[in-house]
Amino acid sequence: MKITLVALAVLGLGASAVQAQEVVKLGTAAPLTGTQSHLGKDIENGVRLAVEEYNAKGVTLGGKKVKFEVMAEDDAADPKTATTVAQRLVDAGVKGVVGHLNSGASIPASRIYNEGGVPQVSPASTNPRLTQQNFKSTFRTIANDVQQGLGIGKYAATTLGKKVAIIDDRTAYGQGLADEVEKAVKASGGTVVTREFTSDKATDFLAILTRIKGKTPDVIVYSGMDTQGGPMLKQIKQLGIGAKFITGDGGCTGEIIKLAGDAIGPNAYCTQPGLPLDKMPGGKDFNARFKKRFNADVQIYAPYAYDAASAIIEAMKAANSSDPAKYAPAIGKVNFPGVIGTVAFDAKGDIKDGAVTVYQFKGGKWEPVQ
What is the mean pLDDT of the chain? Predict the structure, then answer.
């Protein structure tokens, strides 16, 4: 009988300890189904790894031990769905959001988060407009399209050839990046011989590419995602177009290599904001932990998502509170060594000193060249 009472007393103490632990929900939103789900899952896994590691270390806010939980939502890479998802996260009481993948989803969703008083840190949305809305708690851990577009346009016009054709997918990401590429090509002494557009659902580019072939460009710039870039490369080969090909981060993946098959070669280039994973200060160690936890390779955005979640939690720690009204101002003041390098934001909410890397297809994979 005494043993039973002691056991119950121990159980009672355990229950009290559990009850004293505060649950803090963090939201994440990205396409978790459909053709871009491999990139969305990359973001979700980056957030989950950060949360699990902070939980393992233990975090105390306002005198209470907290446990972070992840609420993941599928925005289907669709602007309308993104606003629905954003409202769902706000209504569920999340204290911060890491997302979205696509600028076309992040920009309309950011208004919902702003109105709901929930900080948002995007690990992937690069359109400059995201941080030009004067929302005080909208941030990103990745370089924006002004930086990336400058990198693509300058490299295309000064290294790959003077005559440049541009295609974009008419999304906020694709069109915004293409606008910056066009400016950079012209500023670097190149000529934009034509600018065409498609959609992020298209699979047939023959009409566009036939028109481009008639302009005899040295370089084709595609501003869009890998799911269109792969088939496009096949059709470029099919039409016998000898131009070099360069795309941005949306196409700088292993998936485009799979989709293009033997149509991809050393004439194919791409860019990614940030450093190559193995050149990131915390990249090698992060990659090992990520593979061990998820039995998957990093696509692109997992390190940026990990650092985005870390920025939110570090701001909470600095403010000693998970209340967004109290900790949101601290996000803009964080300065810590992340996977991608030093994580700190400028006055607009953009990551400071955002780098851009150019890759070339060599030996079956993307190799950094500049």
Answer: 94
Strands 97-99 and 64-74: unpaired
DSSP sequence for 283-295: HHHHHHHHHHHHS
> Which two three-digit tokens encode residue 290?
């990520």
pTM: 0.85
Q: Domain residue spans in the chain?
A: 2-143+280-343, 145-273
Q: How confident is the model at residue 149 (pLDDT cuts 50, 70, 90)?
A: very high
Q: Are 193 and 163 in contact (CB under 8 A)?
A: yes
195: helix, strand or coil = strand
Q: Give 203's contacts (C-beta < 8 A, 6+ positions apart).
A: 228, 231
Alpha-carbon Rg of the chain, whole angstroms?
22
The dotted CATH code for 145-273 is: 3.40.50.2300
Mean pLDDT value across residues 147-160: 96
| DSSP character string of 7-44 | HHHHHHHHHHHHHHSEEEEEEEEE--SSTTHHHHHHHH
Domains 2-143+280-343 and 145-273 share a fold: yes
The pLDDT > 90 percentage for the chain reads 92
Is the domain covering 2-143+280-343 a CATH 3.40.50.2300 domain? yes
Contacts of residue 98, Cβ cutoff 8 Å, sequence gap at least 6: 26, 27, 28, 43, 46, 47, 120, 121, 122, 123, 305, 308, 309, 312
pLDDT of residue 1: 41
